[in-house]
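Justification of resources, computational component.

The compute hours requested in this renewal are based largely on the per-chain cost of generating structure records like the one below. Each record pairs the submitted sequence with a full structure-token output. That output is archived, and it is also reused by downstream analysis tasks.
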Amino acid sequence: MQKIPSQLSLKKIFIFWLPLGATWLMMSVEGPFLSALIARLDEPTYNLAAYGVAFSFALIIEAPVIMMMSASTVLVKDKYSFNKLKRFTYFLTAGITLLMLILVIPAVFYFIAEDLIGLPQRVSYLTHIATIILLPWPAAIGYRRFYQGVLIRNNMTRRVAYGTVIRLGTMATTAFIMYFYFNVPGVVVGSTALSVAVLAEAVASRFMTSEILIKLNKEPSIEEEKLTYRTIYTFYYPLALMSLLSLGVQPFVIFFVGQSRMALESLAVLPVITSFVFIFRALGLSYQEVIIARIGDDKSGYIPLRNFAIILSGVLSIILLIIAFTPLSDIWFRDVSGLSDLLSEFARTPLKIMAIIPALTVFISFQRSVLISDKNTAPITWGTAIEFAVIVIVMLLSINVFSFVGAVAATTSFVVGRCAANFYLTFYAKVSMGN
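The structure output for this chain reads:
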């Protein structure tokens, strides 16, 4: 890691974090925006449910490359390490694309969607179409996150935000064109807009690193010990497992929700609720790379970074609590998201349950970043495994024993699972700091 001056103030942290926060905030708008369009097209309940399931499938497939931004922020120090990690990234993205291709084979897909998850036939059909359209999504995510990590390591966080502006502009343009000029299901509008947008951002991220790559090619290697594939694998596989477990829980949640009371309504509102909460979670997730980049070799940035995390977590959860427990939630669900009065009423309780998730997200981002900066990534996987297990157990009990409504069971399990992971990682984060 680069040596970071010990005089790290809250103001400096805010300036460094702001473009990354804006990037994640802009990305978080995608879900509510596309859900609002889908809700205004034909068969909104079926299409919203299909969009949520297809997006969950895409997220699971992309899970192994999600942490590539953190990896390149930590590991790319010179030309040699850049090329080594780039080849590793290409290999990984090729593998997940192959996996996505296998998933969309009709026999495989419908076995998972209908026989295992229990989706209604209309929902599974629409989900299959959307999943095919999302084929480029995982590889494009891995590619652009690799280059974004290079930008962050070189203090070019604004360029990351510029790339997201391109992504949002492309997404909105594509969505509006399909919405107004093509007579296609809403889920096709949403998935096409997502695929085109992330491809545009991936290309933009590569071009914005050109200046850095020229500099790296001119400079000699600075590493005392060459970066090897074994080193990359040892560092990265716990992060990949963490992402896989974190996102892999989604099919289990969908499965249990499909067996619950008011299953169709729950499947319809969950993507709307989670995409809205993600607006607040995104600002916490964006803080992870800030800590990795600014904590310093001697960990001198720990205290100010921790203080900023406390402030950020408090602000985010207070705002969401105010929205969840006031008529502002109705404005969002009914007027902005386009849900019917019935679905808007249905979504209120799950949103209230999720109100503390932004604070928990900031805390876990902080804990994970401390461990990543110390190159001690194994506890992150175990923490996520605990979260996964707790979510499944809570879903199993709440639906099969206590007969919860699906959306209530899902949001409750998310909160309880995250609390368990936060508790587990507290000890290891303190150990990494020598406390």
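DSSP finds 19 helices and no strands in the chain. Residues 17 and 287 are 7 Å apart (CA to CA).
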